[in-house]
Amino acid sequence: MSGNTLGHLFSVTNFGESHGPAIGCVIDGCPPGMSLCEADIQLELDRRRPGTSRHVTQRQEPDAVEILSGVYEGKTTGTPIALLIRNTDQRSKDYGNIAQSFRPGHADYSYWHKYGIRDPRGGGRSSARLTAPTVAAGAVARKWLFEQYGTVFRGCMTAVGSVEIPFESWDHVPHNPFFAPVADVQALEDYMDALRKAGDSCGARIRVTASNVPVGLGEPLYDRLDADIAHAMMGLNAVKGVEIGAGFDSVAQRGTTHGDSLTPEGFRSNNAGGILGGISTGQDIEVSLAIKPTSSIISPRDSIDVNGQPVEVVTKGRHDPCVGIRATPIAEALLALVLMDHALRHRAQCGDVRLAVPPIPASIG
Amino acid sequence: MSGNTLGHLFSVTNFGESHGPAIGCVIDGCPPGMSLCEADIQLELDRRRPGTSRHVTQRQEPDAVEILSGVYEGKTTGTPIALLIRNTDQRSKDYGNIAQSFRPGHADYSYWHKYGIRDPRGGGRSSARLTAPTVAAGAVARKWLFEQYGTVFRGCMTAVGSVEIPFESWDHVPHNPFFAPVADVQALEDYMDALRKAGDSCGARIRVTASNVPVGLGEPLYDRLDADIAHAMMGLNAVKGVEIGAGFDSVAQRGTTHGDSLTPEGFRSNNAGGILGGISTGQDIEVSLAIKPTSSIISPRDSIDVNGQPVEVVTKGRHDPCVGIRATPIAEALLALVLMDHALRHRAQCGDVRLAVPPIPASIG
Amino acid sequence: MSGNTLGHLFSVTNFGESHGPAIGCVIDGCPPGMSLCEADIQLELDRRRPGTSRHVTQRQEPDAVEILSGVYEGKTTGTPIALLIRNTDQRSKDYGNIAQSFRPGHADYSYWHKYGIRDPRGGGRSSARLTAPTVAAGAVARKWLFEQYGTVFRGCMTAVGSVEIPFESWDHVPHNPFFAPVADVQALEDYMDALRKAGDSCGARIRVTASNVPVGLGEPLYDRLDADIAHAMMGLNAVKGVEIGAGFDSVAQRGTTHGDSLTPEGFRSNNAGGILGGISTGQDIEVSLAIKPTSSIISPRDSIDVNGQPVEVVTKGRHDPCVGIRATPIAEALLALVLMDHALRHRAQCGDVRLAVPPIPASIG
Amino acid sequence: MSGNTLGHLFSVTNFGESHGPAIGCVIDGCPPGMSLCEADIQLELDRRRPGTSRHVTQRQEPDAVEILSGVYEGKTTGTPIALLIRNTDQRSKDYGNIAQSFRPGHADYSYWHKYGIRDPRGGGRSSARLTAPTVAAGAVARKWLFEQYGTVFRGCMTAVGSVEIPFESWDHVPHNPFFAPVADVQALEDYMDALRKAGDSCGARIRVTASNVPVGLGEPLYDRLDADIAHAMMGLNAVKGVEIGAGFDSVAQRGTTHGDSLTPEGFRSNNAGGILGGISTGQDIEVSLAIKPTSSIISPRDSIDVNGQPVEVVTKGRHDPCVGIRATPIAEALLALVLMDHALRHRAQCGDVRLAVPPIPASIG
Cβ separation of C119 and B72 shorter than 8 Å? Predict the structure, then answer.
């Protein structure tokens, strides 16, 4: 296991660099017999695509996916599904000036020390562009989980920079460029416009959730369901914090409050975020992510070059001023990939995967 | 990979139940030629041992470790190191009354649904007792990392329930039962005494850090160093949130502030928590954990039994009112295990493991 | 994955040295709810036990197994099953004279070069004693496969040194110390007695077979069922060759003869050995193994010491003059472990595991 | 780990079907900084290419490889290397007549039972065409091992059908279409011509060897070097037997003969095939393979269709009458991949990889 593979039984091996010829992934372990075509995957890729509003990078990438294998006459065959996305809008010259120095807060420094060589074009392997194959693979997992169990994944932004976003309704999420669950996003537009003018970037907080989750998913020690969710989410570019259920609010809670009491009709609350002892309960899985500000900014910063000499770094090129804005569909995909893998692991050991009976009431909105 | 193994190259396979005959682990992949004896491991086990203050479970377990293999004439041979800890103070009858019902907030419910069978004695496999083998394995990793690179691991409690604990000095940590970095723990004693009288439990926040960390550890996608730390930490009983570096504070930060600027003498700050792009920079690794309140409490709770009928659950037996109190040495061990695994992974691919030059200044505090 | 684990979903992690305090293994991934007690395992351990005839090592080891975890009230719980076997009859002084030199044909040389340190007592980790935990784990796999599918495993010796052993009946196998499928073993007794007097050792050939095998087990590329069988068998001490079905006889066969033709009642022959394209067909799995002569012999041999100086090596101590004699139950266990792992892998991806319909006629003999 | 990945640290994930749009692989874990271009890989692909003599399939495939990632300015970056080979000469209609029935000796039957669906075009995933990505990945491993240690891989055919091929010299191998180590291949030409006229196919035996092998590669239990070689080789289409060193000849050998004696100048013989106790000794690795006759033959055979009804099967299309003819470069590639993986595993645990001192004399020719 060499690092670029996510999952054990539904495993996704990711390849590519931001400005190389192509990016993609190989999905191994997909159950046979599921209908699958490129449009099923394109749908999710389009949700994270760059260039769709003024608040994200202006790089224009169609992100057209090609299925190279594993599907025959519109159905999965059980053999590896290779997905290919050609890069089309690389402007590598934009990055020439940072090839010999390190952007503060960027992977430049650590890649160079690890490998002694790095592809500086667009961040190379460290680019958020490499989340596209993850989203593509996630689309396959989502489809299977939905068809088998009715599992659905949703996500939204809950804060952008210092602006908290209240939850109004999932219905609003597709209708604004922020994945914000509110009807009026003027405050967010204004905040982002001011930020862009200042040549700065900001962080974000994202919430993702899964409903209609089978009960019993997760290995109790060490590969707990929450542990693998944390692994997947913290493995996403720029994520600095992960919470399940009540998260850091648990610290100040008491046991009498935190522990979700049960009734014959289901749980009364969901501080657990749908996971107890590392195993899914059937309640909604609830995850929250902290995403740091983009490190590629136009404001000048103090840094050093590869020879250790002081330099001032200014990053031109086309960057997301808030990488969190496009993170929602990616986090949904990651959650789907983790649940898919654990559904298959559970099926291997315990022979069936099923929803909880009596049905578990979903958490509130 | 069946769930109970942590790590790929320095891998720890954990076994046992709270009230079974024994618990333990097998460490595979330890480099040969390192001095190792039981006292090296016992030292760390004693730090997490139950029964050492009135604020933790009164179960008396010597937790005496026996090395069964992998060490010859006081040196590791490169073959698996099996560690055995016999359980001695099981009082299984304490748990008879909860065998047929589910404690709110406890793994009872999810285990029963996953496996169709569970060992209810002391929580069985879901007991925090199973962190002892993790600590034992961590002691081996710590020793190797210290001898090779001078890496040291420290941890402390930063909040217990609603009481925030300021950082005064690492020197205080060993001198109180809370791993608190303060000289005066009277407020914590009082808080815990009141809680115990109320028959309730509380959460906690823990901070762990590693210093003198080699540069270049971590696979950028998906097995990032921070992702694997999050996996290890969220895999610890009762953890509901994990932060690296600035964590959730990153959300409201701007790029000009968050990105740690570099000078020829090193980094000026450590919002990154020692990790950029999933790879260690050589700065201190900084991790923060949210730990939920213990679910086994004496206060009566509404729940259901295995037949779905309503019951009132009261948990007797001997429990930690705040599992966070003993979590510090465990979290240190987990951090050591993750760094050890990545040190070997890095050595495999890149051929050497080394500290950053120029030396990276440690973060403050 | 650090080398001492066999299997991915039903995984066995083996530990111990020949003359250390104990040997054993941890089985992870066993399905929950199966009846299991120590006697189920002891039965198979007794079949490979040393000291039971004059043709094998005279070391007396009861090989009493203790189940440390994973079983509650006589049933597997789905959590790791740790098995412990204490070593009782170590005579380490027997081996003092070979600690500084290398026995021709023995792992002494390669261990010393790999690790820079080795446990010379009884071969340390390279001892055939370490097959005991494999047999113990295999007993668990056999029980599950038999209860689920009626799968049975059998093995016999087909040649000892230059003496070919014809197949008469499986019924004879338990009634002689060679696992020979013949009524009269006088020729084998005489051959072994002469060999022992000559202070020499000999090779052997073993056949193992599985009947009532589910159809569809095996991943076509690279983890084919035959590939994983070859891995398991070649991983057994002293094995130098592995054949599936017609094996090396396939070289001179023609396609018209080799390809097993099918009829509505099943296959007409079994040159495939029950595996086509890396996937089980439901026919009997047929495996043949070549086992080399024991390298620890009393006859003097030319060798070198750790300083590269020439020495003459004579191995005293208690050794099997033909390690193949006790290999049959071990090879059966390995075959069971591989099928078990693939049964779970198949169940994960394809959702069910079943026997072929129409029933496949067993191969002859 | 889902079956289509070979190797743990230098891992190759293979995808594609014979008549799909493309085949390829992703190599993860390649050390950074090695020069690599497409020509380095094409060289080895051309050695296994179809259509190069009348004795192999007449399918014309340029097998032009494209490097999609992991190489920057001609050097490996340490990130995944994706290799793509487009299929160009598919004639899927050739296979229409066998979509509903099972060729004797072919994977048709087992795939259909495993997955409930199969891609019948050219054998789909079970086609020997899928060895091309393995060869491509092997070229990368060979280059690194050669540059680091001078390791070289060679292979030749030692029997085709009933014709034994004596070893004359490695020099002859590139000069005939059989990879035969003899100057005069007229007997082989005649044998193959007669076979083709008869509409039949035949088996073959192949030998592969590695020289200048580092000492100490291999995990003693269970992932021995010989075990992983056996896994890789038996995972190759049509292989039914694997031998290391003396192989099945070991059965009739005595310990005094089999054990390779040592002198200060090196080993006197190589019955071990370069591996003792599962670990490389530095001697040449010697492997022999039995390859079964091709199952796709023009002669009519009895079989059944997917409904269990009797049918007569005749396979038209373009097939190798002896798949063993093109197997030599594939087996070399597999040996290189296994050694590469174990070189990195050894480096992880033991910190260095080196050749034996004093130098080990190579085995005879």
Answer: yes
- Give B214-270 pLDDT, tens digit per residue: 999 999 899 999 999 999 999 999 999 999 999 999 999 999 999 999 999 889 999
Nearest-Cα distance to chain C for B166, in Å, is 40
Residue C158: CB atoms within 10 Å: 20
Per-residue pLDDT of D262-305, as tens digits, reads 999 889 999 999 999 999 999 999 999 999 999 888 889 999 99
- What integer best gives the mean pLDDT of chain C? 92
ipTM higher than threshold 0.85: yes
Q: Is D78 helix (H, G, I), strand (E, B) or coil?
A: coil
| Minimum distance, in Å, between the CA of residue A105 and any CA atom of chain C | 33
Give the pair of three-digit tokens for residue C362. Answer: 């067993």
Burial pattern D135-170, b for ≥16 Cβ within 10 A else e, equals bbbbbbbbbbbeebbebbbbbbbbbbbebebeeeee
Q: Does domain B5-350 have CATH number 3.60.150.10?
A: yes
Provide the CB-side half-sphere exposure for A118 (13 A, CA). 31
Helix (H, G, I), strand (E, B) or coil at A41: helix
User: Is any Cβ of chain C less than 8 angstroms from the Cβ of B29?
Assistant: yes
pLDDT in tens, A300-340: 999 999 888 999 998 877 778 899 999 999 999 999 999 99
Q: Which chains touch A (3 or more CB pairs under 8 A)?
A: B, C, D
Nearest partner of B1 among D229, C141, C336, C80, judged by Cα: C80
Q: Which chains sit next to C, with 3 or more Cβ pairs under 8 A?
A: A, B, D
Candidate from C161, C162, C356 with C-beta closest to D113: C356
Give the residue from D222, D236, D289, D296 with the most C CB atoms within 10 Å of its CB, the best one to mutate: D222
> Residue D238 annotated as binding?
yes
- Measured between its terminal Cα atoms, the distance across chain C in Å is 39
* Strand partners of residue B241: A243, B290
Q: Specify whether the CB–CB gap between D40 and D56 falls below 8 A.
A: no
Spatial contact of C276 and C349, defined as CB atoms under 8 Å apart: no
- Domain range annotation of chain B: 5-350
Contact: A31, C1; criterion CB under 8 Å: no
Which residues fall within 8 angstroms of residue D197, CB to CB, at 6 or more apart? none
Which of B62-66, C94-98, D11-15, D46-50 is predicted most confidently? D11-15
